[in-house]
Every structure is written in C-alpha cells, then in structure tokens.
Write a structure and sequence with these properties.
The complex is a heterodimer of chains A (112) and B (316).
Chain A: E1 6-8, H1 13-19, E2 24-29, H2 34-49, E3 55-60, H3 65-70, E4 78-83, E5 86-92, H4 97-104
Parallel strand pairs in A: 1-3, 2-3
Antiparallel strand pairs in A: 2-4, 4-5
Chain B: E1 2-12, H1 16-27, E2 33-35, E3 55-56, E4 66-67, H2 68-81, E5 85-87, E6 93-95, E7 101-105, E8 108-117, E9 121-123, H3 131-134, E10 139-140, H4 143-146, E11 154-158, H5 162-171, E12 177-181, H6 191-199, E13 203-206, E14 209-215, E15 222-227, E16 233-236, E17 240-243, E18 247-249, E19 280-282, H7 294-314
Parallel strand pairs in B: 1-2, 1-8, 2-5, 8-19, 10-17, 11-12, 11-17, 12-13
Antiparallel strand pairs in B: 3-4, 6-7, 7-8, 9-18, 14-15, 15-16
Helix pairs in contact in B: 1-2, 1-7, 5-6
Classes of the chains: A alpha/beta (112), B alpha/beta (316).
Chain lengths: 112, 316
C-alpha cells in the first residue's frame, strides 16, 4: 500500500509476521469502530517516520475474526507487537502518537 | 518551546460544543486554534462522546439518522474549511491568571487573548478493584467497538439511563441475552428508551442491584451482584460487562482556576458562556449536567463563540 501499511489477512498473517525483518505492530480494527478511525492517521504517520525500523500492519477483525480470536482480542482497537515472529506486547485501546511511540520505544533499536 | 504569537482564541476540546465554537469563530476571522485532545477508547477523545456511539437519531437535519463518528467528522471538516487549526493532543496545563492566557501542550506554550473551554465529560467506571485488569478482556467502555466480540454470549450492562439502554439494545444484535443492572427500582431513561428496553425480548432488567465483584482468570467469566434492598448476594455468569452509569466533567485542568459546582461542572453566568474569568468561556457538557445532548452542546458552543467575539471587540 502507498502509505506503507501492510494489510494482513487470515491467509498471510503467520507468514508475514514470521518473516518480518523488523518489529511489526498489528492494528486490529473494524469499519464500525470510532476509536479505530481516530488512531488510523497516527499509525500512518508512525509508518512513514519509522520506515524500515518498525512495520505497521492492519487486520480487519470483521473479515479475519479467526486471527483476532487466536490472540484473545476482545476490544478494538488492540495493537499487538510481534518481534522475531513472537507476540511481545498487547495494547488495548486507542492512544495518542506520543503515548504510542513511548509504548513501542523498547522495540526500536537505538540509533548511535 | 514557546510561541510569541498571541492568538485571538484557543478552543480546548472538540466535541459538538468545541467544534461549533470553532466554526463560528473561524467564520468570524478569529483563526481559532483547536486543541482537540488525543485518541483514546474513552469518551475523552477528539470528537467527544459521540465517537463511541452508533446511530444518532435525534440530531436535526439527518432524517435517516447519522453515525456519531461521522457526524463529528463533518463538524470538524466544516471548522477546517474556514481555517480552524488543530492540534491532536491534550492540554497539559493552563494559566489564566494574566493576559494573554497561557495554554500548554506538554512543554509547548500557546498564548491567546481568549479561551473557550469545551472539554466535555467522560463516562464513569465502576471503581472496582480489579476493573483495570479486565479492561479489554470482557470489560468494555465502548459497546460499538466491542459488541462484535460477544456474539452468542451473555453480557451485563450497568446503568439505567438513556445511554445504558442504547448500549443494551445495540448489544442484543450480538449477545443472546443482555442483563441490565439497575441500582434502583426505576429507570432514569426517557420514556421512548424505557419502552425500547421493555420491548426487547433479549433484555432482562435486574432491579435494585449493583455489581460488586468481577470474576475470571484471564477473561471475565462472571460478575457478583448485591441486592441494594435485601443485601442478598448473587452471581451472574457473563463474559461481557459494559458500564454506562453516568459521567464526570473533564475539569481537572481548571481546579482552583475556574469556578465549579460541587459536582465539578464549570459554573457559567446564567444565559451565557461567561466563566468567572473575563475572556474565558465555557460551553458544552463541561458546564451542563442537565441536558447533555449533542444539539445543546452545539448550541452552547455557538453562544460561547458569539460571547467571545463580542468580548474581544469590547477590548479594543
């Protein structure tokens, strides 16, 4: 996609998460969720600013409920952070950019 | 970091009140800066409480209804069209003791000749010990966001007002049964909403009851209830809990600065948006614990804009 955000589906989820060379933040969202819409621009900005450092991906829970269920997602937006194919962090609820960046800072390698 | 530029007006908050004030002050060439708040899953977020609702049926001009988030997007677009400026963050601190007024977003200071406060109100939670732990694991503050995850399950909605019934009705689309837990033996909700609850076969009302405990290991598996009359305890096996027991105004920023009622709502001079500080105006739910409607908030936002514009003129 042009905004650098990957669209995940039931079909490509495992492969994409496993083969990602960077930490990957997966946004579980749906069309009918107001707070999900509110964080969309925040995620787009982070995707742009952190290209090659952190990957941002989206998963529509309406279409791919099996994945949401597998990770116990019961509230959206939920953001899951995967690193080296493993789930490292679960964040429930919408957050502002500053807060979100602070939450994922531990996954961003420090620049020297 | 600070900006030497003194604005005509800063608007804090971006629900129907703040955005209406933005539309009016922008059209009056006051170039408002709207500090709209930051995304969250509570009603304390840009767009305000309507961001957590679905269909709004009573906003004039929309005969077929309109989705809450969509309505707020339209408000915002309209303000942006007249060049209102937006910062999508929360105000950290204010200083209204001298003019120009100072408003901080983290360490960034903004100066303005006038301020319109429209920070709204947010939903109250139950205040139970392990409440936070179940948030996102069965306990939700947003029926429209999370109802979907309770397909074929039994859930509880706490509250007896319009929003509780609206949530309960909405949730019956997904849940097999919704128990409405009401503290008294009457509903506070409007007649039309009461009827809606009574007509819905999936809604059962549990009168004189309060949720006192939450059960479950990883996910919520049940709630403990107490009968407020007999003191008798009981347990309901449910996987979902939604809370709609009222609101508190977002006035923490203004403690000791702006006059408030005992319940924390801002005081305004009757029939106007004037606060105790000349040049600081308040509108919307932050100063209204009576009507609390999108349309009344919008109306009071318009009042604040006009009061503000006239006050600025009087200062020349």
């Amino acid at each position: 996609m042009s905004d650098g955000i990957i669209t995940l589906t039931s079909a490509n989820f495992d492969e994409t998460v496993k083969s990602s060379t960077t930490p990957i933040v997966v946004d579980f969202w749906a069309e009918w969720c107001g707070p999900c819409k509110a964080i969309a621009p925040v995620l787009t900005e982070i995707a742009k600013e952190q290209t090659g450092v952190v990957t941002i991906a989206k998963l529509n829970v309406d279409d791919h409920g099996d994945i949401a269920q597998r990770f116990g997602v019961m509230s959206i937006p939920t953001l899951l952070v995967f690193n080296n194919g493993e789930m490292k962090k679960k964040m429930v609820g919408a957050k502002g950019k500053t807060q979100l960046l602070a939450e994922i800072a531990e996954f961003i390698p420090k620049k020297n | 970091m600070s900006s030497e530029n003194v604005r005509e007006v800063i608007i804090i908050g971006s629900g129907p009140a703040g955005l209406t004030a933005a539309i009016y002050t922008a059209r009056a060439n006051l170039a408002p800066l709207v500090i709209e708040g930051e995304p969250s899953s509570t009603s304390d977020q840009p767009g305000g409480q309507l961001m957590l609702t679905t269909e709004v049926e009573n906003f004039p001009g929309f005969p077929d209804g309109v989705m809450g988030p969509e309505l707020m997007l339209k408000f915002r677009e309209q303000a942006a069209r007249f060049n209102a400026e937006f910062i999508t963050e929360k105000v950290t601190k204010v200083d209204f003791s001298a003019r120009p007024f100072k408003v901080w977003v983290r360490d960034e200071m903004h100066l303005a000749k006038s301020v319109i406060v429209s920070t709204g109100a947010q939903s109250l939670m139950l205040g139970l010990e392990n409440e936070k732990r179940f948030y996102g694991h069965g306990l939700s503050s947003c029926a429209t966001c999370d109802g979907f995850f309770f397909k074929g399950q039994e859930i509880v909605v706490v509250g007896g007002g319009d929003s509780a019934i609206e949530e309960a009705s909405f949730l019956t689309k997904f849940a097999t049964k919704v128990t409405l837990v009401v503290r008294r033996d009457v509903l506070r909700a409007s007649k039309i909403m009461q009827q809606r609850a009574k007509d819905n076969p999936k809604i059962e009302i549990k009168w004189n009851s309060q949720v006192t405990e939450l059960f479950g290991t990883e996910k919520l598996s049940g709630v403990g209830l107490i009968d407020t009359v007999t003191g008798e305890k009981s347990k309901l096996d449910v996987t979902g809990l939604f809370v709609a027991i009222g609101h508190r105004p977002n006035t923490d920023l203004f403690k000791g600065v702006l006059d408030m009622l005992d319940n924390g709502y801002l005081k305004t001079k009757s029939g106007s948006s004037y606060t105790n500080i000349p040049g600081v105006f308040a509108c919307g739910d932050v100063q209204d614990h009576t009507y609390r409607q999108a349309i009344t908030a919008a109306g009071s936002g318009c009042m604040a804009a006009i009061d503000c514009e006239r006050w600025l003129e009087s200062q020349h």
